[in-house]
Design goal:
Blueprint lengths: L27 H16 L3 H15 L8 H4 L7 H13 L3 H8 L1 H10 L6 H9 L5 H6 L7 H8 L1 H5 L2 E2 H18 L4 E4 L1 H4 L4 E2 L2 E6 L6 H14 L3 E7 L20 E10 L19 E10 L5 H9 L2 H15 L1 E3 L4 E3 L4 E2 L5 H7 L13
Parallel strand pairs: 4-7
Antiparallel strand pairs: 1-3, 2-4, 5-6, 6-7, 8-9, 9-10
Helix pairs in contact: 1-2, 1-4, 6-7, 11-13
The protein binds 2'-deoxyguanosine-5'-triphosphate (DGT) and magnesium ion.
Amino acid sequence: PEASTHLPVVVLSRYACQRRTSTENHNEIFTDAFEVMAESYEFSQCDGQCLAFRRAASVLKSVPWPVERLGAATRLPCLGEHTRAVMEEILQCGRSFEVEKILCNDRYQRLKLFTSVFGVGPKTAEKWHRGGLRTLNDALEDPGVELNSMQKAGFRHHGDISRAVSRAEALALGEILHQAALGISAHAVLVLTGGFRRGKEFGHDVDFLLSTPEQGKEETLLLSLVDSLRRQGILLYCDHHPSTFDINNLPGVSFEAMDHFAKSFLILRLEDRQVEGGVQRPEGQHDGRSWRAVRVDVVAPPMERYAFTLLGWTGSRQFERDLRRFARKEKRMLLDNHGLWDKTKKEFLPAEREEDIFAHLGLEYLEPQLRNA
Ligand code: DGT
Ligand code: MG
């Protein structure tokens, strides 16, 4: 009998917040290809097609076995004609020629390179590409290119920041920030969010949520924390965004918009000796240094918004997008990192824990480890 006949039948929802997605991806061969397609569409500002490939990748990540024929995938949601065509190619030839063509494309390669610099988004990358820049050195040397301070820091630490952050490094940074926060206030609360809270072993940055039960003191706490890091000599860069939070604003509809809480985008210096188990440098990266630079984000919501912000910053991005879409389309509710608005009752729904938000939405609670959509 065919192997697939023994597999349990799973009915997958078209919403990532109704699927269980662990860090174990059995369909990387497809999802890696879809990520290239999505990125390429993102560079061309084709948001619809970009999202279609991200959604399809997210669905395949939640299938707990490798999809071996398209027949079995026909009942998977969110797979359109184009995504299926790419899968078909991979199933038949082991690779997708459409994806390979993109990977060889000059414009794609340059935009990918330029956007790998912290502070350089697709728009700037596109401008540099149109201006004929080819390498990172071109961007540094071109007299027509004016770098802002974020981009300057991005170039300065490009090698380190491009290298994945390990869980041990994330935990070491958590310890440093925690000690610094407690040195300012005994009531300070610091929790790891983002990919590491979802159980990922590697990430591109480390995300933290900082708060305090002392009302209205969270932003001062964040500023003092950054100041403490500066005095310790480990602050390599800080871009601080003051709070613009207004309690009366309704939740935003777009996921892409950042939240209004005070936050700092940092680059910190992490010493090798601070990392449990030591640091293994990849071959050829022994430059005599005993430290590396790491990107760290810290968001500081008021305590009564803690659950919403924790849920919003834990991700994944696709999980968040679908959580908001589910709330809007299925429940007539608006959700973002600040709160949950019930359009029928015309009121904000309170939440102390993430579980309360899932319950308001009529969703089964999913542990962070199952939100890797
Ligand atoms: P990575 O790449 O290993 O760091 O993976 P993540 O999942 O930690 O991704 P990251 O650090 O970009 O973002 C963590 C969460 O923070 C993300 O799932 C949602 C939130 N977040 C980050 N950027 C934005 C944004 O532009 N808008 C909104 N609404 N949320 C964001
Ligand atoms: Mg992250």
